[in-house]
Structure formats: structure tokens, C-alpha cells
Amino acid sequence: MAALPTASLLQTPSSPKPHLLSLLPSPNPNPNAFSSSLPQGKNRPISVAVARRRHPPAPFPARCSSGHSEHEYEGVPRQRPQEIPWSKDLANSVHLIGIVGSPVQIKHLNSGKVLAWTRLGVKKSASETTWINLTFWDELADVASQHVEKGHQVHVSGRLVSDVVEGDDEKRQVFYKVVVQQLNFIERNYSTVSLYEPETRSVDSGTKFGGYVGNSSGSTEKLWQAFFANPMDWWDNRKNKRNPKYPDFKHKDTGEALWIDAMNNPHWVKSQLAILDSRMSSLHQANGMSPAVSFLYDGDFTPF
Length: 304
Prior knowledge:
With 304 residues, this protein is mainly β. It is built from 3 helices and 17 strands. Strand 9 (114-123) and strand 10 (129-137) form a beta hairpin. The chain is globular.
């Protein structure tokens, strides 16, 4: 790269204004600087080098979306996350803190396995609670059965698993539960009373059908989803109904009721009941139980 020119200025006693005398190649080898020769004393030039400022590389642009508008800002480059090996224990792992909503139920299977289950209420807001089904196996099932009670605030971690069922119109319903791998109690110095929102024990008022009152269509669908997610929590009264108006299924703890022929039932209820009955029948035969036993399941049937 050619050297930058040097501007030589000379100021004489009779002329206060400097005059440009010549432009000479700069002896400064730095290509990013230029030199000017100014008078010093009598006709003695001095060189002043001014370096060009180098700007740091501009950060990459990033886009931020908020609501219905998008904004661009100058983001700072970050280090790429490290890679870790795949682990079954980490796959679909979740941590939850909530209030136990029903007594822990336990079943000792003929295979030697121990199964326990309950529901956990997780607060979404001051007035809304999401209920998550929990399943415990073997030693942890015994621990939960012996120590966990309704109303306790607990922390659980485990794997989120799902069961997908299809209705008559081929629409898919997905149910979720957590297979608990770790269980802890929350210290009592953290208030749990305000967080506990018990499930209703009465049937919500809604549409009347067949002379009795049932749930609204929205709440009915949620109840059926809860039923298929954890059918062992419900009494099956279909073969021993006290009267025709008595519910076909009744929750063992909350008293919530469901009728198979309700007008506001989801269209997929009967087809899913047929699938459930078939699976339960096979399960009972494999374990030597009577089909009259209320809904229970083992590891071969995961309704959630």
C-alpha cells in the first residue's frame, strides 16, 4: 500500500497565516496514519501523526417479537450451548410443586410390582388450578402411600408420558401424567393454605338430561378427560346402579359424576369406553382378578 502524503506547512514572521509548501510521501510506515509537517521555531518542520480510529466489529442484529410487533436490536454474541449425551432420565423430565388433591391409592400386583397414584394441583393463577395425575412405582409407591396425604404440598420430579386415543371421527385425544422418580415435601414455613383449591364435591349446574342435572359441555369434557387419564380414581356403577338416574361413574374422592348417555358428552366417549373395557378385561384375566373390580391398571396399560 502506498504511503500517505505529508502536508508541509511553513509560517514566516511576516506572514502569520501558514502556507502549503508541498505534499511529500510520509516517512511513517503505518498505513493507517497520516503526517503533517508544521513549523517549529524558525523554518523547522515537525511531524504530527494522527492515527485512524479502528471501530470494533458491529454486533449481529437480533429480532425481538413482543405482542403483535417486532423490534430489532443489537444483540451481543453468546457462546453456543454445550452438547450432552442423550439420557433417558433427562428425556421429558419435569419438576412440579403443588398440592396433593386426593388420598394416595396403592395396589400390589400379582407380578410383584407396587403401584400408587394420586393427583397434584398446580396453581396457574390465583383462581385457576391445573390437576396433574401422578404415578408411583415399587419402593416410591410405598413411600407415597405411607407418608403423603391430601393437602400436603410436595415437589415431584419425573418423566412426562402420554397416551393417545382416537375417536370415531379419527380425532386424537392426548392424556398426560408424570411417572414420579423423586418425591420431596415443601417446608412448612411456606404457606400452603392459600394455594390449596379443593376440587368441587358437587356436580356443576348445567344442562338437564333424562331428568337429572349434569355438567356443562366444557366441564363435562374435562371430567371425561380426567376419567380416561386415571380411571382407577372412579367407581364403575354401570352394573349396580341404585336407580337409572344414578351416575355411571363417580369419583372416589371428589364425588364428581359422569353419565354415559348425557346429551352434552363428547362424541368420543363411548368408543373410548369400549377400548378401555377391552383393555381392563384383558388385564383382569392376566392378573386373575374379577372383571367386577373397579378400574385399576398396571404397567401394561397407561391411560395417561
